[in-house]
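Shipment paperwork, digital attachment
Item: protein structure file
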Amino acid sequence: MEPDKGFVDSKDGTRIAYTRYGSGPAVVLVDGGLAAQDFGPNKSLAEALSSRYTVYTYDRRGRGGSGETLPVDVEREFEDLDAVADLAGEPVMLYGISSGGALILDYLRSGRTARKVALYEVPFVVDDGTRPPAPDDYVEHIHSLLAQGKNGEVVKYFMRYGVRLPALLVAAFPLFPGWSHLKTVAPTIVYDLQYVEQFQRGRKLPADRWTDLGAPVTVIAGSKSPAWMRNANAALAQAIPGATHRVLPGQTHLVKAPVLAPALIEFFG
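Attachment content:
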């Protein structure tokens, strides 16, 4: 069955581009920072899950085929996810990778519901021994660069001090085929910062923030991801009452769909 592409209007009228794959119980996949339907890991994951589920991917606002309506407000992103989830006509299961997982956590804290929730490597920083925390002026510096129209510098700063990629790799980013996409969607980084920045300071996660999410949760990480990422996701699983924690052998933050899909199928049922 060919994927079904379309648009749905969010509550504020912003058009959100989505793709629907397969048939079965509904699953919505939420991208992380800078990713979109045609630029990131969720397309191949949707294809891998489509034999068992009706899988929805979508372009978060300001990316790909979706529109944007200012000012930036995370409640608008929650309404975008509402609009996509409503297409299913039933309670959905949610999967979020990286800061997309953090978006889902705040989405549920806002009072929304889901049947089950799977998170892959939410990029929190819970100790200062495995990597430095985000700089004190991290958010302010990104906003300053955006105000000057320096989208390329925003991407490089985010990759160096948010993601903590090696400096030489970040310097080579303009040579990569996806550089034009990254510069175009650079302003959307401000959404992701609102979900993760306060938890990238090298401190323990709060014990009472995620105590009432209303759905079973699993937190997944890759065994070859950096220690700071593995530590953060183990801590996140402990901070969510009843959550399970799983580590996928041989995987990094660029998780492979043929490895991840069976773990999600086992959890979603």
